[in-house]
Design brief:
mainly alpha
Length: 238
């Protein structure tokens, strides 16, 4: 029937529908019910409608077939999508994200190494409480500049953190960079720290572990913001 009897082209008011239904034969009422109300106990086919049936009967049959076809066509993509959902495409990791992850891995590796080294030094210092520890030259007794204990200053477990050691140096009137008696002006220590190899300061006053902690926190925040943005872009593409 083409578009002649499509649902969008039928314009009938309620009174006309009521009059039409009242004039139906039993066969026509069955077709009407199958189209718009509920499935009948048996399905009518083209062969069951003889040539003597009225034009209304043939018209209703054609409408029913068009409705069935349209419903089946619209339903199939929905059913297919439910059975075989298409996975959402994720955008490839950005170059910026890859660089951040590389820096984060390197910073965590350095922090883990430094933490193990510091903990080993603290453990050795605690073991030497009742011992006189000789210096590398084998003559002088090792004394911590911060607590006067029998251990290297770098391994002082009484003042472990960089903030504690800085405060202790100020209390003892020591330079918080070179740990010599406080001097006027800028510290002129020239040799690099043997821990971080990055700056001129005593190894006991190295703040590398603090800087690594701060760097890791900032990298994690920046990476989290970047990943959130990438997830939103993935959602918008769906």
């Amino acid at each position: 029937m083409g578009n002649q009897f499509s649902s969008t082209s039928i314009r009938v008011n309620n009174d006309a529908l009521i009059r039409l239904q009242n004039s139906f034969s039993a066969e026509q009422r069955e077709l009407w019910s199958e189209c718009f109300i509920a499935p009948p106990p048996r399905a009518l086919s083209r062969s069951s409608i003889d040539s003597s049936s009225s034009s209304n009967t043939h018209r209703l049959f054609d409408i029913r077939e068009e409705l069935r076809t349209e419903i089946s066509t619209r339903k199939r993509p929905i059913d297919d999508s439910i059975r075989s959902p298409t996975p959402a495409k994720r955008s490839a990791p950005s170059e910026e994200g890859a660089k951040l992850r590389t820096r984060l891995i390197a910073a965590k590796r350095d922090r883990d190494y430094l933490t193990k080294r510091r903990e080993r030094g603290f453990a050795e210092a605690r073991d030497s409480v009742d011992k006189d520890v000789k210096s590398p030259n084998g003559y002088s007794i090792i004394k911590c500049l911060l607590c006067d204990g029998n251990h290297f200053t770098n391994s002082c477990y009484v003042y472990e953190s960089y903030a504690q050691r800085t405060e202790r140096c100020i209390q003892m009137d020591l330079c918080p960079t070179c740990m010599f008696r406080k001097h006027d002006g800028v510290c002129r220590l020239s040799h690099d720290c043997r821990t971080c190899r990055k700056g001129s300061h005593a190894a006991a006053m190295c703040s590398w572990h603090v800087e690594l902690d701060n760097e890791i926190r900032e990298l994690e925040k920046e990476l989290s913001r970047l990943e959130d943005g990438e997830r939103w872009r993935d959602v918008e593409r769906r």
